[in-house]
Amino acid sequence: MREFNGVTGYQYTTWFDEEGIVVWNLTNHWEGKFRYAFISRIFETEHILAVQVKSRQFVPIFKSGLGPEEIDGLTAFLKTKNKKIKIDRLKKRNNKGTQKIKKG
Fold first, then answer.
1. Mind listing the pLDDT tens digit for each residue in 46-72?
2. 2 vs 76: CA distance, rounded Å
3. Element (DSSP H or E) covering residue 32
4. Which of 10, 53, 98, 103 is deepest in the core (most CB within 10 A)?
């Protein structure tokens, strides 16, 4: 990153509108939109929801500011926009990797 644009990290703001997920890169002022129809999967880890679109790009949604009900509400909302979204919940198992729990 540093060689490409002189920074060691990026800052993003993400929001949801009627058409899809909007990602605003505050570091280089880039905006992208991922339509709900193109979301294929959501991976839930301990700290993030990684929303994957069909082009295999990911949009990270950080869980630190969300409660369990809000996380469930967000995934339910996304499923109403695209019923084909698959949700994979990955959780830690004894510090030896992850255990995959499929739902939806």
1. 999 999 999 989 999 989 989 999 999
2. 38
3. strand 30-35
4. 53
pLDDT of 72 reads 93
* Cβ atoms 89, 98 nearer than 8 A: no
pTM recorded for the entire structure = 0.73
Instruction: Compute the distance between CA of residue 32 and CA of residue 83 in angstroms, rounded to an integer.
Output: 22
Contacts of residue 36, defined as CB under 8 A and 6 or more positions apart, other chains included, come to: 19, 20, 21, 78, 81, 82
Alpha-carbon distance of 57 to 32, in angstroms, equals 11
User: CA–CA distance from 100 to each of 36, 47, 78 (Å)?
Assistant: 24, 15, 21
